[in-house]
Design a protein that fits this description.
385 residues, alpha/beta, TIM Barrel, Alpha-Beta Plaits, four-stranded parallel β-sheet, dihydropyrimidine dehydrogenase (NAD+) activity, dihydrouracil dehydrogenase (NAD(+)), Aldolase_TIM
């Protein structure tokens, strides 16, 4: 069973990389990542903007919201960058390379146009296997200042770094641009060796009793499993149009999530939030989930599934708007919980003798009722002519 993949020209043992975060801050954290079983490490980003090197406290919170049965969980964080400047960072890269045997990817975030190449060269000279450039940092000046053109800055920073170093250069993209696909193709044309899709967005959580934003009082990054759908959406349309390999990040929490990213067209994934929430060794749980998937589908090489879902991705003009569907309930499985009845806006569902009944004449075939049934009593199928 072979999980090897190639990303930005680097062969990796499997597709799960430790993403840039406090969990990859320094050489000791890089060692933890290797010991846990990650295939590569993206070190915490070094920032040219000095204030970004200092964290406020506290800076993490798990947010739980929604309604009973439909809860959502958000990892809300305002973690700043690496604690030092480029000289200290180069030493961290050097020590990380000395103490590990897996690829070490540096991560840089600059504010002056001329600094990108300088930082990239320092990382290359320190022994980094690749450099991730991050004009997309959600709390960085380039994103905070609305007058900045994130697209143009990313493309120029990439060109400057490519001209200065020989190691792979990987832009970490933002979802906060006018058109992610357009930016991705422009970065590809400018020579990107890989694309990391997508950096966190920022948001606000408010304490309704204190009547103020929580924690430090301002914006924070927010992520969780719910974020994956947007990442998949952009990868599946980008992958067929670029030469650069793709690393998915944002919402990747399980081995099944990794599989989804590869099916969409990514070669690797990067995880951080789940490391905070479950620990470094959770990567082994994810790898086991991937192994079980490969066994179930009799896959010898994991890389064989890369982009397969993209081949089945339809344009809106191709959607089937003719075939009608209808739901049916199995009374033997039905517990009479009434969840399906409550969500049916077509009044097609009623309870008879404590069991749900679905009127096929009223049923719209929308698919909502089977998805809210927790016991699998409702199935949906094409309506007979």
């Amino acid at each position: 069973m072979n999980m090897k993949v190639r990303y930005a020209g680097i062969e990796l043992a499997h597709p799960i990389i430790a993403a840039s975060a406090g969990t990859t801050m320094d050489a000791p954290e890089a060692v933890k990542c290797e010991d846990a079983g990650f295939s590569a490490v993206v070190l915490k980003s070094v920032q040219e903007e000095v204030i970004m090197r200092y964290n406020p406290f506290p800076r993490f919170k798990v947010l739980r919201s929604g309604i009973p049965g439909y809860e959502s969980c958000t990892f809300y964080s305002y973690e700043q960058a690496y604690y030092g400047g480029i000289e200290e960072y180069a030493e961290t890269v050097r020590k990380s390379k000395e103490r590990t045997s897996i690829p070490i990817i540096a991560s840089i975030n600059c504010i002056q146009p001329e600094t990108w190449a300088k930082y990239a060269v320092a990382c290359e000279q320190a022994g980094a296997d690749a450099v991730e450039i991050v004009p997309s940092c959600p709390s960085g000046l380039l994103v905070r200042d609305p007058s900045n053109d994130g697209h143009a800055i990313a493309v120029q920073a990439l060109k400057d770094c490519k001209a200065a170093v020989k190691i792979p250069v990987i832009p970490k993209m933002s979802g906060q641009v006018a058109n992610v696909l357009h930016t991705a193709t422009c970065l590809d044309q400018a020579g990107a060796d890989g694309l990391t899709m997508l950096n966190r967005a920022t948001g606000i959580e408010i304490d309704i009793d204190a009547m103020r934003p929580i924690l430090h009082g301002g914006v924070a990054g927010h992520g969780g499993s719910w974020a994956l759908n947007a990442v998949l959406r952009w990868i599946i349309v980008t992958a067929p149009k670029v030469r650069a390999t793709i690393s998915a990040t944002g919402g990747v929490m399980t081995g099944e999530d990794v599989i989804k990213c590869l099916l969409a067209g990514a070669q690797t994934t990067q995880i951080a939030a789940v490391v905070y929430l479950k620990g470094y060794k959770y990567v082994q749980t994810m790898l086991e989930q991937i192994r079980r998937y490969m066994e179930r589908h009799e896959l010898e090489n994991l890389a064989d599934i890369i982009g397969v879902a993209g081949k089945n991705f339809l344009s809106m003009e191709q959607y089937d708007r003719v075939t009608r569907y209808v739901s049916e309930c199995d009374p033997e499985k039905c517990t009479g919980c009434r969840k399906c009845e409550n969500v049916c806006i077509y009044d097609a569902i009623s309870l008879k003798s404590g069991k749900c009944e679905i009127d096929p004449q009223k049923c719209d075939g929308c698919g909502l009722c089977p998805s809210v049934c927790r016991v699998g009593a409702i199935q949906i199928h094409p309506k007979e002519a």
